[in-house]
Specification:
Blueprint lengths: L16 H11 L4 H8 L3 H15 L4 E4 L2 E4 L1 H29 L2 E8 L1 H4 L2 H11 L3 E8 L2 H10 L4 E5 L7 E10 L1 E5 L10 E2 H4 L4 E4 L4 H12 L8 E3 L2 H11 L2 E4 L1 H4 L6 E7 L3 E9 L6 H14 L6 H4 L2
Parallel strand pairs: 3-4, 3-5, 8-12, 9-10, 9-11
Antiparallel strand pairs: 1-2, 5-13, 6-13, 7-11, 7-12
Length: 316
């Protein structure tokens, strides 16, 4: 690779940004040596670049006086014409730097409802406060849609509950949290410090669809405790289960994020045996994580502190 600017098609030289950069450096008062050092090229490349530019334009740009290149009147006029170009370039460089540092750009987030309506939303608020130049696409959908969107690259990051590995995605567990049992405040089990699966066998409850990760996990607990899993009503989402629990007056088992939004007429109690599930971060395999994603994930981690156990604590 040479220091000289490249030639265009059919042997014709094209007006390149590099040639204009050499011209701009000399117009700024730099010597050929200073221009070369500033641009990271050789001194002969500076001289040759100016000669090429003069030949292409058919205009004499500099005169050598007292061992310096002095701009001609034509050079001053042309220099004024190209100033907007360098303003655009400087803006481009600043924008790229801001994106690299995670303070500018666009972030696309997709989450399942329990996280999307709680810690993920609060993390977004903290994330945006110090990033006025960042725009965000934020949505909440069922888990299958989140997985598909991350896999297809239509979002930068996905958040979900209940699994810690996937065949096509990179999964990072941000925390481990325990499911809880919700009951109305006037329910017979409301005074208990904790509610067991054995307690629930004598009471109606709202169940989660067994086809969902959380529903399957809850059913497995009932099987292990040798209690028939026979919910009076079965629903898809934890939020729906919480609403029906309060409306119908029965118990339900949900994630702790859904429990954050219950009314005073409901209470949340620890579930026995404890059922710990992962809070999963999803992103595409083989794709470097952008700085904006890392910055947002750090805010999510902060919001999760105190709500569960760190993955490192679970390794032992």
């Amino acid at each position: 690779m040479t220091d000289d600017p490249p030639a265009g098609m059919n042997g014709r030289e094209r007006l390149s940004l590099r040639l204009l950069s050499i011209f701009s450096a000399l117009m700024g008062g730099a010597t050929t040596k200073e221009a070369a050092e500033g641009l990271g090229i050789s001194q002969p490349a500076v001289s040759n670049g100016i000669k090429q530019l003069e030949t292409m334009l058919g205009v004499n740009l500099f005169e050598r006086l007292h061992r310096r290149l002095e701009p001609t009147e034509e050079a001053f006029q042309l220099y004024a014409e190209i100033q907007p170009v360098f303003s655009i370039v400087r803006g481009f460089e600043a924008r790229a730097k801001a994106m690299r540092l995670g303070v500018s750009g666009r972030l696309r987030i997709l989450s399942t409802p329990p996280l999307g309506h709680s810690v993920a939303a609060k993390a977004l608020s903290a994330f945006l406060q110090s990033r006025p130049d960042v725009t965000v696409s934020y949505d909440v959908r069922r888990l299958e849609s989140v997985v598909d969107a991350v896999h297809n690259g239509t979002v930068d990051v996905g958040l979900g509950l209940g699994f810690d590995a996937h065949q096509t995605l990179n999964i990072e567990v941000l925390a481990w949290v325990d499911l809880v049992c919700l009951v109305p405040a006037d329910h017979p089990l409301a005074e208990a410090e904790a509610i067991s699966v054995q307690d629930l066998k004598d009471h109606d409850h709202i169940g989660l669809d067994a086809e969902s990760p959380l529903g399957n996990t809850i059913r497995t607990i009932f099987i292990r405790e040798r209690v028939d899993y026979a919910p009076r009503v079965e629903v898809r989402y934890c939020a729906t289960a919480a609403v029906l629990s309060e409306a119908v007056g029965v118990a339900t088992i949900v994630d702790p994020f859904t429990a954050l939004g219950i009314p005073p007429s409901q209470v949340a109690r620890p579930l026995i045996p404890a059922c710990t599930i992962p809070v999963a971060l999803m992103y595409r395999a083989g794709v470097p994580r952008p700085a904006l994603v890392s910055a947002y994930v750090n805010e999510v981690r902060k919001m999760l502190r105190g709500m569960g156990r760190d993955p490192l604590d679970m390794s032992g």
